Amino acid sequence: NAGVMQNPRHLVRRRGQEARLRxxxxxxxxxVYWYRQLPEEGLKFMVYLQKENIIDESGMPKERFSAxxxxxxxxxxxxxxxxxxxxAAYFCAxxxxxxxxxxxxxxxxxxxxx
Amino acid sequence: DAKTTQPNSMESNEEEPVHLPCNHSTISxxxxIHWYRQLPSQGPEYVIHGLTSNVNxxxxxxxxxxxxxxxTLILHRATLRDAAVYYCILTNYGGSQGNLIFxxxxxxxxxx
Lengths: 114, 112
Known about the structure:
Helix content of chain A: under 10%
Strand order of the largest sheet of chain B: 1-9-8-3-4
Order of helices and strands of chain A: EEEEEEEEEEE
Low-confidence stretches of chain A: none
Shape of chain B: globular
Structural class of chain B: mainly beta
Radius of gyration of chain B: 13 Å
Distance between the termini of chain B: 38 Å
Number of strands of chain B: 9
Shape of chain A: globular
Low-confidence stretches of chain B: none
Oligomer: heterodimer
Helix content of chain B: under 10%
Strand content of chain B: over 45%
Distance between the termini of chain A: 36 Å
Number of helices of chain A: 0
């Protein structure tokens, strides 16, 4: 049973470009969470999705950021018109249920905006 | 969500036990205590969780105070691979949406 898969592991974008981060949850998991970790800081919750639905996006910046988890395929975190402050590690986690059960994290995508 | 308080950093010698404390004085009756750790350049990894009773698994032990206002993660024999940031997190099975609220955690250094 493969773990949570994130790709790419490293992504470099110029200011103003779009970044698309992918996350395939563990088999059988329908709950996905995205977190962001700025350099030298802790992880901050961004968004919680359950197949085709956004359950909680309270941690997501209001502009330029969006997330989806379609019926088929991976969850996507999309950042439009990236700025240098978006440079961070973005982690995805999945769980079999949405109420505080053990979460399994991917290895993260390290986004660098130049 | 209730908050937790952990020391910023701790040091241990290899092969010795490590006791990582966590205070959660405002814990509610339905809050579970979870521990995760994050090794350098990796995603967080689940370590252990409990509600009221002490818990043991292959990675660690969790000792929970009788009043539940504090807990201690115990690594029985620290190895160099245990050097990581350890996070103590409260999760409410009854009402939360399931997302984890990470604090600053405790950075554990292990000396050979």
